[in-house]
Amino acid sequence: MLNDYLTEETVLFAENIDGWRAAIDLVTEPLLASGSITPDYKQAMIDSIAGGGVYIDLGFGIALAHSRPENGVVRTGLSSLRVTPAVLLNDDPAHPIDLFFCLAATDATGHLDTMRELATLLTDDDKRGRLLAATTSADALAVIQEIGDSE
What is the pTM of this model? Predict the structure, then answer.
């Protein structure tokens, strides 16, 4: 499932970006371009984070940006953005983030397999470390492929 969503087009890298809002702008670009989400969905995520939504911080410098399906999801999608250096989620020093995922889910259950695979990836110390060390989409996709191969 992760291999279906995380591709050369949806695994992004950026350096020296101007904060978490810029990260949300960038990580949503592939989903907007593919028509998976509307601009309202991106804005809902920004509003949620600005309102104190640091709950998207998964730890290890990783955040899972998302909102409710009715806020503008057209079809399920997933993208990622590795930023260097890390940015502060909601400008909070307690939440430095250098890997953003953006999840768009059409309903409460349709994305559960994708979430399970993402959880498997992010809870494996070795794979998470290699994913965080990736400097190209090919490097990141090689780690992601391992999850699909082991399923």
Answer: 0.93
